[in-house]
Design brief:
about 80 residues; mainly beta; 6-stranded antiparallel beta sheet; globular
Length: about 80
């Protein structure tokens, strides 16, 4: 198997952090946010998405957002933050 950042993200070999609204802000280096339940992002730090403030909204279970995230806070739901 080839070694690449995409493979690490796809198979979560770099690890993941599961958070809910009680977790508060979760800091790290994440390549994807996967919504395990319907969730609402209340705060987000992202370096490569223009107008990332538009992501401060609700997402349905099963949605995955890719990017370079360093801090994520949700106000409801359950998400997996996939490390890179």
């Amino acid at each position: 198997m080839a070694s690449s950042r995409n493979n690490a993200l796809e198979f979560s070999s770099a690890g993941s952090v599961i958070i809910d609204s009680a977790a508060g802000a979760t800091a790290g280096k994440f390549g994807a946010i996967q919504f395990l339940k319907d969730s609402t992002i209340s705060a987000l730090t992202e370096t490569k998405i223009t107008n990332s403030d538009k992501l401060l909204t609700s997402f349905g279970a099963g949605t995955i957002i890719y990017g370079q995230f360093s801090s994520v806070t949700i106000s409801g739901g359950l998400v997996a933050l996939h490390k890179v």
